[in-house]
Amino acid sequence: MKHSLLTAACSAAFLLTGCNGASNATQSGDDAAAQAQPADGKPFVATEVATFDEPWAMTFLPDGRLLVTEKEGKLKLLDTASKRVGEISGVPEVDYGGQGGFGDVVLHPKFASNGLVYLSYAEKGDGDTRGGAVARGKLTLDKNGGGALSGVKVIWRQVPKVSGRGHYGHRIAFDKDGKLWISSSERQKFDPAQDMKSNLGKIVRLNDDGSVPADNPFADQGGVAAQVWSLGHRNALGLAFDAQGRLWEHEMGPKGGDELNLIERGSNYGYPIVSNGDHYDGRDIPDHDTRPEFNAPEVFWNPVISPAGFIIYSGDLFPDWKGDGFIGGLSSQALIRIEFDGVKAREAARYDMGKRIREVEQGPDGAIWLLEDEGGARLLKLTPPAPAKT
């Protein structure tokens, strides 16, 4: 029986400040409390900008427009000033259903000169199989508020394709050196997370064209093992680099035990051998502390938050939050703020949003943008409240 890390009152109320689910955290006041607070007590104002149908991810173009993926297979283009929504053609065909469909959208670090956009999605295989894939193509915008992708090519696939439509992961991030990182979840198959003949349940590091860097930790093993940077992951749905270049990842645990991990070269994070949650059928999974050879999470949540979307804030609009992480919560219907202290982390605050939050992004002006989940999902822009009148 795993112990609960949130008090019942905190879990039920989703307190707006200091509600903490971390095993290594202590409760503290919100560092934004001195700001003028809106009537609901939050240290920001949320403004609805647009709505989308089952959105999954978003990324800003250099001109301030926004690309948004919708799970069923559409890539939308939003002019955030006029609120006009167009569509991008030429996208890959997706296998839509369950947790599958369109996934992440990320720009190449040199997008301004090469126009390359990276997309992840669920791809149909032989028979009743499917798996995650990442493709890239060149984006050309038109004068009518839309555009098209050309030269689309798949540069990575989950191996093997398996049955079911859960746990794709397929979050994408680029580091400061231009390397491509992909979270590859274990597709609800458990054991592949520990199998180096599969890239399921792994964090993958590639060159921008999908080739394998020679300095990857398992490169000498060849095959899909050469792609792997870390293993033993379950359903990894958030990747973000901090200002020092460290990669942080969050993933959904089984029945309990959602995790925030610092990703280290060649490290094994233990799933399904260890977890701070249990199997859904009631079978116990040993806790991380029973197997110290596996890398334990920096923060874990039980009850869960169901994390989705992740940024580490670097803007100036919320100066007190620079360097903090923000995680969207699905079942928790919240925005969770993480404070980092070097390689340590803790939940600092939880803001009740009243809806499942699928995606978090930082805007060009430092605003924080959220996408709700499912049909009729709102795109929200978070900005500081007006200063208090003296």
UniProtKB/TrEMBL annotation:
<feature type="signal peptide">
    <location>
        <begin position="1"/>
        <end position="25"/>
    </location>
</feature>
<protein>
    <submittedName>
        <fullName>PQQ-dependent sugar dehydrogenase</fullName>
    </submittedName>
</protein>
<dbReference type="Pfam" id="PF07995">
    <property type="entry name" value="GSDH"/>
</dbReference>
<keyword id="KW-0732">Signal</keyword>
<feature type="domain" description="Glucose/Sorbosone dehydrogenase">
    <location>
        <begin position="52"/>
        <end position="380"/>
    </location>
</feature>
<dbReference type="InterPro" id="IPR011042">
    <property type="entry name" value="6-blade_b-propeller_TolB-like"/>
</dbReference>
<dbReference type="InterPro" id="IPR011041">
    <property type="entry name" value="Quinoprot_gluc/sorb_DH_b-prop"/>
</dbReference>
<dbReference type="InterPro" id="IPR012938">
    <property type="entry name" value="Glc/Sorbosone_DH"/>
</dbReference>
